[in-house]
Specification:
The protein has 305 residues and is an alpha/beta fold. The protein has two domains: 9-59, Spermidine Synthase, Chain: A, domain 2, CATH 2.30.140; 63-290, Rossmann fold, CATH 3.40.50. It has helices at residues 63-77, 93-98, 114-123, 125-128, 144-150, 177-185, 204-217, 251-260, 271-277, 282-290; strands at residues 8-15, 18-32, 37-43, 47-52, 55-59, 83-88, 106-111, 137-141, 155-161, 187-199, 220-228, 233-241. The chain binds S-adenosylmethionine (SAM).
Length: 305
């Protein structure tokens, strides 16, 4: 039982029947953009957090786990990532991690919501840590899918860092077979893609569906996960690749790649951890292997499925 007297709480639904409560020190910002509700709060345990549509996106205490997990396995798997596309990633943490690789010459970041970027820059600048001022970064305000339909650019790495697929949200059509086919077309022949893939526990079906959908589109698909305390769950990611397999890299090769690219200031991802990220417990391995359905525009997946 939560004692509420004298305290203010932020509550986040994991499912219709599980609610997580965070004690709040300060409410810093609250607004509604054209696409979503945007809040910035400071919690006791996770510090300042960006919250979209009632879901914590990034907390300054543990955001490095999510951003390093999304970015570095894919970047390291590609032998020479020069051009990178980020879809979403409004708070700038994904761009910050991508720009650590000195092979990178151009990053295009396409987020639908300029207000998320402005609010993040103002209230949580440590998340982007200068990424928005880096000359290699071009920021485009657009729907990620609309951008992929229009652009003729080809990328070495594409990172999908959009909000979870919610029925009223702006991102659920970025988890479908049609969307992944578009992304594949905009990858160079040895390109690598990675996407966040929701909670492996509270929305396991979405995770397995995203994996099976990517398997229909890409020849090499590897699911992985990392525990993210502020999400109160092990979080799912999926890497999809046209040629290079992340599992072919030894610890020494990962060490050498990070060293050559001058990527030293990491807090989560490291050479010995690369393969372990892809080592999943049996119940998850089975759930992924047994998934037969896929996500399409006609039949999207919605969290917390
Ligand atoms: N860490 C995250 C999480 O918890 O799922 C994702 C972080 S990031 C803040 C998500 C971003 O995706 C937001 O800035 C949002 O505006 C963006 N986004 C949502 N739908 C999008 C779309 N259709 N195209 C481009 N960006 C989108």
């Amino acid at each position: 039982m939560i004692k509420t007297a004298n305290w203010r709480w932020f509550t986040e639904y994991q499912t219709d029947s599980t609610l997580v409560a965070h004690k709040v020190k300060r409410f810093l910002y609250s607004g509604k953009s054209k696409y979503q509700e945007i809040d910035v709060i400071e919690t006791e345990d996770f510090g300042i957090c960006l919250v979209l549509d009632g879901k914590i996106q990034s907390s300054i205490v543990d955001e490095f786990i999510y951003h390093e997990s999304l970015v570095h396995p894919a970047m390291v798997t590609h032998p020479n990532p020069e051009k990178v596309l980020i879809i979403g990633g409004g708070e700038g943490g994904t761009a910050r991690e991508v720009l650590k690789h000195n092979t990178v010459k151009r990053v295009v970041m396409v987020d639908i919501d300029e207000e998320v970027i402005q609010v993040s820059k103002e209230y949580i600048p440590q998340l982007s840590s200068g990424a928005f001022d880096d000359k290699r970064l071009s920021l485009i305000i657009d729907d990620g899918r609309a951008y992929l339909e229009k652009t003729h650019e080809e990328y070495d790495v594409i990172l999908i860092d959009v909000t979870d697929p919610l029925p009223e949200g702006p991102s659920y059509l970025l988890y479908t077979k049609q969307f992944y086919e578009l992304a594949k077309r905009r990858l160079k022949p040895n390109g690598v893609m990675a996407t966040q893939a929701t909670s492996v526990f509270y929305s396991r079906r979405s995770y397995t569906l995203i994996y099976s959908t990517l398997k229909r589109v890409f020849p090499i698909v590897r699911a992985y996960s990392a525990w993210i305390p502020s999400y109160v769950s092990a979080w799912g990611f999926v890497l999809a690749s046209l040629k290079h397999d992340p599992l072919d890299l030894s610890d020494d090769e990962v060490r050498s790649i990070l060293g050559k690219r001058n990527v030293h200031n990491l807090r989560f991802y490291h050479p010995e951890f690369h393969k372990s990220l892809f080592t999943l417990p049996l119940y998850l391995k089975r759930a992924l292997e047994e998934e037969r359905e896929i996500v399409t525009d006609e039949k999207p997946t919605f969290m917390p499925a």
